[in-house]
Amino acid sequence: MHKSLDVENLSASYGETQVLENISFSMKAGRLVGIIGPNGSGKSTLLKGILGLIPLDTGEVKFCHEPLSKVRKRVAYKPQSSEIDWDFPITVIDTVLLGTYPKLGLFKRPGKRERDLAMKCLGKVGMADFAQRQISEMSGGQRQRVFLARALAQEAECFFLDEPFVGIDASSEEIIINNLKELRDLGKTIYLVHHDLTKVTSYFDDIILINKKLYGAGPVEDIFKKEIMEEAFGSSLSVFYNWEVKS
Predict the structure, then answer these.
(1) Contact at 8 Å (CB) between 183 and 64?
(2) Contact 153, 117 (CB under 8 A)
(3) Which of the two residues, 234 and 178, has the higher pLDDT score?
(4) Which helix (H) or strand (E) holds 116?
């Protein structure tokens, strides 16, 4: 199986504070990958650093052995909900259509094919009936499903999702994870910043465990072990009393 992502010596700072220190790993394609770690460990910063959304102190990132500039159209990104202007006056269908723009030529507008694709993607996440509603009217779970539909409409090879399950209902979470697993089964690669340790073994094939530095990257069964998790989380691990890791 070929590599989807190679990260070498990635370091990033906010002002004088170093947030990530010499992160290096390689991940296989066609996997559902969880990025986990304590609060403030740099999970979202890692995602943004990989995608070139923040300046790096050091580091090189390759997607299938290519720089991001060569594969940008094949990469989809969904930021945290707090970074999205939910009051912007746009309908659900037009939000999803934004996902089709990377593959359209310059100055081209979405046509019938793109609208049909957008409606198909909304149908996959159970939101087709809301196509003409304003995004501002949607609940937290509905908004996350709409933004997943936008990522699906991009027809990307690699998906990066920052905390898609925060503040949503159980039904929306189930719909989203089932769609992500279906994408994985189609050979797509999904990277997902996640904080609920109780779901790690049922959601992910691989995990990237960080707390400013890398504590492990690879199959869940190799990394999600008590001694490794305790090293990364320290005393904060005790709050997750209702989950199991392999010792």
Answers:
(1) no
(2) yes
(3) 178
(4) helix 112-124
HSE-CB of 31 using CA atoms within 13 angstroms: 22
Place of tokens 């990307």: 156
Q: Tokens in use for 121?
A: 């993607």
Q: Per-residue pLDDT tens for 109-150?
A: 878 889 999 999 999 999 999 999 999 999 888 998 898 899
3-class SS of residue 195: coil
- DSSP states of 158-180: EEEEESTTTT--HHHHHHHHHHH
Burial degree of 8 (CB within 10 A; 0-12, 13-18, 19+):
middle
* pTM check: above 0.85: yes
Do residues 167 and 195 make contact, with C-beta atoms less than 8 angstroms apart?
no
Average pLDDT over residues 174-182: 93
> What are the two backbone dihedrals, phi and then psi, of residue 80, each rounded to the nearest 5 degrees?
-60, 150
Residue type at 214 in one-letter notation: L
